[in-house]
Amino acid sequence: MKDGRKNNENRKNEQLEQFRVDDAGQKMTTNQGLKISEDEFSLKAGERGPTLMEDFHFREKMTHFDHERIPERIVHARGFAAHGEFEVYESMKEYTKAKFLQDPAVKTPVFVRFSTVAGSRGSAETVRDVRGFATKFYTEEGNYDLVGNNIPVFFIQDAIKFPDLIHAVKPEPHNEMPQAASAHDTFWDFVANNQESAHMIMWHMSDRAIPRSLRMMEGFGVHTFRFVNDQGKAHFVKFHWKPVLGVHSLVWDEAQKISGKDPDYQRRDLWESIEKGDYPVFELGVQLLAEEDEFKFDFDILDPTKLWPEEDVPVKIIGKMTLNRNVDNVFAETEQVAFHPGHVVPGIDFSNDPLLQGRLFSYTDTQLIRLGGPNFHELPINRPVCPFHNNQRDGYGRQTINVGQVSYHNNSLAANTPAPASEAEGGYVHYQEKVEGRKIRSRSDSFKDHFSQATLFWNSMSQPEKQHIIEAFSFELGKVKSMSVRQQVADMFANVNLELATAFAEAIGVNPPQGGGSNVTKSSAALSQENTKKKPNTRKVAVIVGNDFNGTDLVSVLGSLKSEGIQPEIISEKLGTVKGSDGSGLEVAHTFLTADSVLFDAVYVVGGSGQSRKFQNDAAYFVNEAFSHFKAIGATHEGVKWLEIFNKKNCPGVVTGEDINGFVTEFVAAVAAHRHWDRQIV
Predict the structure, then answer these.
(1) What top-level class would CATH report for the domain 79-378?
(2) Residues near 3 by Cβ (< 8 Å), separated by ≥ 6?
(3) Is the full-model pTM beyond 0.90?
(4) What is the dihedral of CA 385, 387, 390, 393, to 10 degrees?
(5) What string of DSSP letters covers 298-359?
(6) CA 227 to CA 236: how far, in whole Å?
(7) Mean pLDDT of all residues in the chain?
(8) Is residue 567 over pLDDT 80?
(9) Which of 127, 367, 446, 457 sits most deeply, having the most CB atoms within 10 A of its CB?
(10) Is the CATH number 1.20.1370.20 carried by domain 456-530?
(11) What is the dihedral of CA 399, 401, 405, 407, to 10 degrees?
(12) Is the pLDDT of residue 334 over 50?
């Protein structure tokens, strides 16, 4: 790094290293370092007597156990995280003076936590929900937190309504049901009576709310921020994370089944990808808007329920983030990490978005209760890589040992240090925006349009995506017991699109809306997942193999799939080795009991001669389920005959053939396509 400074990544790793402890091969001690001679029995007055209060080891061990759990987050409780690095592609000096956005040679360490919003820590991960996407940059100027979601807008416009939203979406208090789900009365009653949520609900009912992988979803800063350059000139900015693998989702039936088959599905996917070296990569994009253009749109750019259409304000890709290291300890890192949208560096500032303004208060407040006091910044995962000096002292969990007698400003005993830094010395100076007006509890009239961008979203969807939205409304509202709430929601969404509202109104047994409709015809190609990148990389393919398979051809196909970045896994009737007709053997990774089609992206049926009826039945169920979820199905040799029996041959996304090279090319393309929606009309 320039000027002989250590690379930030190395500094963060070195800093964390001093806190890592490997207990293997060590003698047991108390937390004070005293070696322990016995850990099976408490100290008693005689073998059958009462336990003695003087047993300090028992008391320390039990007290620590009793306090091992900290309060889980009220929202975003279910989360998983990874370490990585960020590098900017080119200097952003024209727009911001933030140092980590200047030099492409500098790699800034990051820590990213993904999460669901509504469920508890023990809830499943493939529920229909918003996903949190929070990134902590450990920069030389201090920590910068970009705390966002996988959806670019939000339910509400003002932070004062956030407790109401979360009270509504959480399990209902009279029976504590349902867990991690929005399909219940109080949530939809909130929606019907708080119509600013319309745009967010369209995203929430779309495929975006059930991502295939944390590696395959976008991230958004949600709010409007400011970039400020070293000349004091500001631009409004919105942040985007773009996954290089594209944006892909589960289908609803698949998501529900995965919740039972593997409730840790998404964290397992992230963990295993990093362990294999298939590092998730996200590119950072920004939408930049000159201050003089603030009012040129038909929506308010500060409204958090609105996005900036990419066709109107293009996304400029400025860097990339690579997640390349799993956590050492989930509690110490993932659970104790403290994010805050107010953790900024010089060159990044706020706007008057009323939801953002409220978050600037709320995040500090919640860390105080979760992490036991004001010193949460001293936990290893939260410590900046640069030194920090101030007159803050003491409190729960204090780790810093401050020397000297002075802890106040101004002072003469320590030459008035620590002293504020000037802007030229890197001191943070708030952007000098002119603000004037009367104190008032109100909302700008420019925030009152709740439906036009919801219609924009609907107009932008492909036909399969529209059908999924209709089905999502039908499922969610079908769980609502109040007929009045159902009717209110149907009438509300008639303002978005009459076809949509009429379709789900019929499904949930309420009257079709008598009025409504929208004159908005605009669409945005960037909003449809049909237009995303489609790559085979890291896709998992279940390979169904029986004894006496064609060994030469199968080994060739597996090698070709791996060369394309696809991960084939052998499934058979029993664990161990399955034998080919040429005497070759393949190690079986899963049986039909330990694997399921919903845990794979595609299926390749090889078969073998003389398999049992049970094997064939299990294989048929496996293939039929994958087929019903629109996944790619491939078959060669005996597997082709099976597909004929299953009546699956010659359907969209089903690839067969004896020409192995041609088969591989076509099958890889089918896997990359992710889904084959044409099957809906077969």
Answers:
(1) mainly beta
(2) none
(3) yes
(4) 70
(5) SS-TT-TT----TTTSPPEEEEEEEEEEE-S-IIIIIIT----TT---TTEEE---HHHHHH
(6) 6
(7) 93
(8) yes
(9) 457
(10) yes
(11) -30
(12) yes
**In 3D, which of 6, 306, 365, 305 has the Cα closest to residue 157?**
305
Chain segment 472-512, per-residue pLDDT in tens: 999 999 999 999 999 999 999 999 999 999 999 999 999 99
User: Strand, coil or helix: what is 127?
Assistant: coil
Q: Tell me if 138 is assigned to a ligand binding site.
A: no
Backbone CA torsion sign across 214, 217, 221, 227: positive
Q: Report d(CA 654, CA 646) in Å as an integer.
A: 12
Side chain identity at 298, as an amino acid letter? Answer: D
Amino acid at residue number 410: N
Give 180-236 pLDDT, tens digit per residue.
999 999 999 999 999 999 999 999 999 999 999 999 999 999 999 999 999 999 999
CA atoms within 13 A on the CB side of 136: 26
d(CA 592, CA 597): 9
Active site residue 382: no
Q: What is the pLDDT of residue 408?
A: 87
More confident residue, 566 or 20: 566
Q: Please give the helix or strand (H or E) that residue 62 lies within, else none.
A: helix 56-66
Active site residue 76: yes
* Measured distance CA(107)–CA(381) in Å, rounded: 18
Q: Output the CA torsion 629→630→634→635 (10° steps).
A: 70
For residues 265-294, average pLDDT: 98
pLDDT of residue 1: 44
* Residue 559 confidence (pLDDT) above 80: yes
Segment 430-451 shows an average pLDDT of: 89
- For the beta carbon of residue 387, count every other beta carbon within 10 angstroms: 5
Q: Is the pLDDT of residue 140 over 60?
A: yes
The annotation status of 393 as a binding-site residue, yes or no, is no
Does 5 show up as a binding residue in the annotation? Answer: no
Give me the phi and psi of 242, to 5 degrees please.
-110, 115
Which pLDDT belongs to residue 33? 81
73 in a known ligand binding site: yes
**Cα–Cα separations (whole angstroms), residue 576 to 540, 551, 616, 638:** 20, 16, 19, 21
Q: Is 602 helix (H, G, I), strand (E, B) or coil?
A: strand
Query: 113 labelled as ligand-binding?
Result: yes
Residue found under tokens 């060739």: 556
Residues with Cβ within 8 Å of 613's Cβ and at least 6 positions away in sequence, in order, are none
Across residues 87-96, what is the average pLDDT? 98
Domain spans of the chain, in order of start? 79-378, 456-530, 534-681
Looking at domain 534-681, its CATH architecture is 3-Layer(aba) Sandwich (3.40)
Distance CA 569, CA 544 (A): 9
Cis peptide before 418 (omega within 30 of 0): yes
680 has pLDDT over 70: no
H or E element at residue 526: none
Contact 228, 96 (CB under 8 A): yes
Task: Dump pLDDT digits (tens) for 3-39.
Answer: 445 677 787 787 778 888 887 888 888 888 888 888 8
Q: Is 128 annotated as a binding residue?
A: no
Catalytic residue among 149, 150, 375, 459: 149
